[in-house]
Structure formats: C-alpha cells, structure tokens
Amino acid sequence: MNKPTFAPEVAPSPNGEIVIKADNVSVFYGDFLAVRDVCLEIPKHKIVAFIGPSGCGKSTMLRCFNRMNELIPGTKVEGKITFYETDLYGSDVDAISVRRKIGMVFQKPNPFPKSIYNNIAYGAWVNHYQGDMDELVERSLRRAFLWDEVKDILYQSGLDLSGGQQQRLCIARAIAIEPEILLMDEPCSALDPISTKNIEDLMQELKQRYTIIIVTHNMQQAARISDLTAFFNVETNDKGDKTGYLVEYAATKSIFETPQQQATLDYVSGRFS
Length: 273
Description:
This protein has 10 helices and 11 strands. With 273 residues, it is α/β, with parallel strands linked by helices. The chain has one domain: Rossmann fold, CATH 3.40.50. Strands 1, 2, 3, 4, 5, 6, 7, 8, 9, 10 and 11 form an 11-stranded mixed beta sheet that branches. β5 and β6 form a beta hairpin. α3 runs parallel beside α6 and α6 packs parallel to α7. The protein starts with a strand and ends in a 5-residue tail after the last helix.
C-alpha cells in the first residue's frame, strides 16, 4: 500500500495552527470503497489543492470536510476528521452547523433564482442574522470583487450575470455567513480564461481571511495558486472498481519540482498513464 509522504516544510503553518485533520479516512458508497486511508492536515490561511486523475476521490474527500457526502444515500465515512479539536462526525455535532463553518463553492455556478441582493442575504436570514443586512451584502460582494460591477443592479436576478460573475456571486454568498473554510470543487472549470484569472486572484485575497481547499484538474492552476498540494491516485480491482488514495502531500513547490514519489513525478510531468 502506498503511504502518503509529508515534506518536512509542510507540517506546521506559520502560527502552528491546523484547521482540519484527516486521520485514516475512508469513504464508502454502499459496499464500494471510493477513497481509502487518507491522512493529511490543512493549515490555517493556506490554499490547498487536490490534484489527480479522474476517479481518484478528490471531490469525495473534499465533501467529507463539510459532511456533504451525507446527502448521498448509503455513504459511510470511516476514520476521523477534526475541525480544530472537534470531531466533525461526532454524535453531538450538527451537520448544518458544520456547513456554516465550512462553506462550499461548486464546479458550475449555481446562484439562486433570486436577486443579487437576496442571493447574499438569504443565508443570513435563514441563520437569523441580526446585523445590518445592507452592510453585509455590500461587504460580501466587495470581498468577492463584485460590488463595483453589480452595485447598481442589486435587485436584478443573479442568473442574468455572466458565468464568471455568477461564480463570484456564489463565493460572496458562501462568505456572507462568515465561514472559516471555503471548499471549492473545480470552481473555474466552466469559466473562460479571464474569469478564471479573476477567481484565482480572488482566492489569493480570500486566503487572508479563510482557509481554502480546491479540487482542480488544472495542474498549472494548482501550481499558480496553492501553498500545498495533495496528489491522489487511483487503483482498479479485478471488478473494475476504482479506489482513490493519497500518494503525496507537500508544499506545492516540492510536489512540482522535487516530488518524493515516482507516481507524483509521472503525473506532474505528463508521463502519467
């Protein structure tokens, strides 16, 4: 079994604070083992990229961090995932509360069929926000680099925006409820190069306030924006079932320039088969 390799420079973040820790995490869909034995630590205020071939469990692992996998019938998570010192799957932990702290941005922009203003305000209303709603909406849109583009059309539908604007609206919606972590599942895959650059620039700004974990098939993107990179691979059994596993997790520079595992070197150099 391939064990994950940790480069020495990864381990603590500058302030030594680890936000998420996965300890021997495996994920099953019914009897099917989708991901096995993942161990990694996510430092605060870093961008961590998950890379690897299709079917290697990147998105499955990402969804474990805010318990989104529970929405898929028959899913079972083994091992332990902690958010600071709290077991995210503890019997006394509410999944909805987890998702307030750990927000999600999906591959395809999915604004609500509501006004731009109400896209941002809705989550706050649901969570009984007591502050100034106008101020919250403006602050969230500013943090998403979208305010100047939409400030005069706040009551138009969010669906009228361009794809890149819609994705930034979804990011603004996610940060409006003040999470600590943003999960991003291929947030740029449906966007043009200019919109992609806008989202990447936005992520660099957002990591000053949030910890970001991104799944991407774009290795150049991972190299550009992430501080740490986790390379996942996949193995296929006799029945053709694919199980993902973590091969190597290290500083992004190490993964792309001096990886410790041959499979990682093959993947990042394009020799992966």
